[in-house]
């Protein structure tokens, strides 16, 4: 039984876990963080003490605690599936940051476990669907005022990614956002994915990272999407989405309100990072998730969306390895989604 205020336990208190804790405790109505767990026990127990909340001995203890109504998973990718399955075993609501799991088989297991619960309990952290720009694009597309969508030119650029970043991570960690939001935008399904490796950037890279990469995605309705992924572009956190229609082009703008004209130049800022670029989208995402849990009606990105994204990222990595276009096949979508 959920009280009036949703008591949230957080597993993994790193960069985004800390962001989301602040967001839930200072911005979101109807919820508060009551406990955390992280493998860095010494360091994060201190944080729990400072916040005056419980530090649990394990993720499992947090999930099964009667003092925790819902779980937020912001630990590393490899740990998501196991925690989501344990939350489902307790039939608790769980918000899992993307990706739902690091392979499509694990995502399929989560879908199967959630179907057994008979209702939606999982939401996945695909927050682009809550960005004002993407929501406006969706309305413009659905209006058909510019005819049918023919193709999209997209780019997902990070200023830098660090030496730990590898070629597959550019797809599984980074391109996964476009892979989710674009089929939602088009209300269409992917039928193939091809990875193309252009000339490699040499300054900020290493042997295990080919950067940039291009993914070419095709949909059931014949739309072709070119997606550039550049994780060391150095000039900013730059997200592009150009939608080419039969008689018009629709596109995203970087959400800034000022420019500076000075010394014979005219400068418009570019977001420095994901926290800044999608700040409002994260806030909307979490308020609607909390509302959904309190009303027992989740409507955000589901385990099925996590499964679909994982099938495509797996095929994208296969295409990089094989150097050929990969056709994708999805399981039948269960009726609860
Ligand atoms: N939706 C979005 O835009 C974003 C999503 N993410 C996702 O959020 C997750 C976390 O990313 P970051 O915060 O950047 O990583 P991070 O490395 O800063 O934090 C991860 C935390 O998880 C902890 N951890 C590792 N193994 C654990 C385990 N078995 N149990 C509990 N805690 C464990 C680590 O000690 C660390 O504190 C990743 O899956 C990432 O893909 C990250 C950034 C943005
Ligand atoms: O998870 C993330 C963040 O969501 C950013 O949006 C991406 O640009 C980043 O590459 C990825 O790690």
From TrEMBL:
<feature type="domain" description="Gfo/Idh/MocA-like oxidoreductase C-terminal">
    <location>
        <begin position="138"/>
        <end position="328"/>
    </location>
</feature>
<comment type="function">
    <text>Involved in the oxidation of myo-inositol (MI) and D-chiro-inositol (DCI) to 2-keto-myo-inositol (2KMI or 2-inosose) and 1-keto-D-chiro-inositol (1KDCI), respectively.</text>
</comment>
<dbReference type="Pfam" id="PF01408">
    <property type="entry name" value="GFO_IDH_MocA"/>
</dbReference>
<comment type="subunit">
    <text>Homotetramer.</text>
</comment>
<comment type="pathway">
    <text>Polyol metabolism; myo-inositol degradation into acetyl-CoA; acetyl-CoA from myo-inositol: step 1/7.</text>
</comment>
<dbReference type="Pfam" id="PF02894">
    <property type="entry name" value="GFO_IDH_MocA_C"/>
</dbReference>
<feature type="domain" description="Gfo/Idh/MocA-like oxidoreductase N-terminal">
    <location>
        <begin position="6"/>
        <end position="126"/>
    </location>
</feature>
<dbReference type="InterPro" id="IPR050424">
    <property type="entry name" value="Gfo-Idh-MocA_inositol_DH"/>
</dbReference>
<protein>
    <recommendedName>
        <fullName>Inositol 2-dehydrogenase/D-chiro-inositol 3-dehydrogenase</fullName>
        <ecNumber>1.1.1.18</ecNumber>
        <ecNumber>1.1.1.369</ecNumber>
    </recommendedName>
</protein>
<dbReference type="InterPro" id="IPR023794">
    <property type="entry name" value="MI/DCI_dehydrogenase"/>
</dbReference>
<dbReference type="InterPro" id="IPR036291">
    <property type="entry name" value="NAD(P)-bd_dom_sf"/>
</dbReference>
<dbReference type="InterPro" id="IPR000683">
    <property type="entry name" value="Gfo/Idh/MocA-like_OxRdtase_N"/>
</dbReference>
<keyword id="KW-0520">NAD</keyword>
<comment type="similarity">
    <text>Belongs to the Gfo/Idh/MocA family.</text>
</comment>
<dbReference type="InterPro" id="IPR004104">
    <property type="entry name" value="Gfo/Idh/MocA-like_OxRdtase_C"/>
</dbReference>
<keyword id="KW-0560">Oxidoreductase</keyword>
<dbReference type="GO" id="GO:0050112">
    <property type="term" value="F:inositol 2-dehydrogenase (NAD+) activity"/>
</dbReference>
């Amino acid at each position: 039984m959920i009280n009036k205020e949703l008591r949230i336990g957080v597993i993994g208190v790193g960069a985004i876990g800390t962001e989301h804790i602040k967001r839930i405790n200072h911005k979101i109505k109807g919820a508060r963080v009551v406990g955390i767990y992280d493998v860095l026990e010494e360091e994060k127990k201190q944080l729990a003490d400072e916040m005056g909340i419980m530090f649990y001995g394990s993720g499992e203890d947090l999930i099964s605690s009667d003092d925790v109504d819902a779980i937020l998973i912001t630990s590393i990718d490899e740990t998501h599936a196991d925690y989501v399955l344990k939350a489902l075993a307790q039939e608790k609501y769980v918000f899992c940051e993307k990706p739902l799991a690091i392979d499509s088989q694990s995502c399929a297991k989560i879908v199967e476990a959630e179907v057994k619960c008979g209702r939606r309990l999982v939401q996945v952290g695909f927050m682009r669907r809550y960005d004002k720009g993407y929501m406006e694009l969706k309305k413009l597309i659905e209006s058909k005022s510019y005819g049918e969508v023919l193709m999209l030119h997209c780019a997902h650029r990070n200023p830098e990614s660090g030496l730990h970043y590898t070629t597959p991570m550019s797809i599984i960690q980074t391109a996964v956002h476009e892979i989710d939001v674009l089929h939602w935008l088009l209300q269409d399904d992917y039928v193939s994915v091809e990875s193309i490796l252009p000339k490699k950037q040499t300054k900020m890279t290493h042997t295990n990272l080919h950067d940039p990469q291009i993914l070419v995605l095709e949909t059931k309705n014949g739309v072709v999407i070119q997606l550039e992924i550049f994780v060391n572009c150095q000039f900013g956190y730059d997200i592009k989405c150009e939608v080419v229609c039969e008689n018009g082009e629709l596109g995203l703008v970087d959400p800034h309100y000022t420019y500076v004209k000075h010394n014979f130049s005219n400068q418009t800022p570019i977001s420095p990072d994901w926290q800044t670029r999608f700040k409002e989208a994260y806030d909307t995402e979490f308020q609607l998730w909390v509302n959904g849990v309190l009303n027992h009606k989740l409507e955000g990105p589901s385990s099925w969306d996590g499964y679909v994204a994982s099938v495509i990222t797996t095929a994208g990595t296969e295409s990089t390895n094989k150097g050929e276009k990969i056709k994708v096949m999805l399981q039948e979508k269960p009726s609860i989604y």
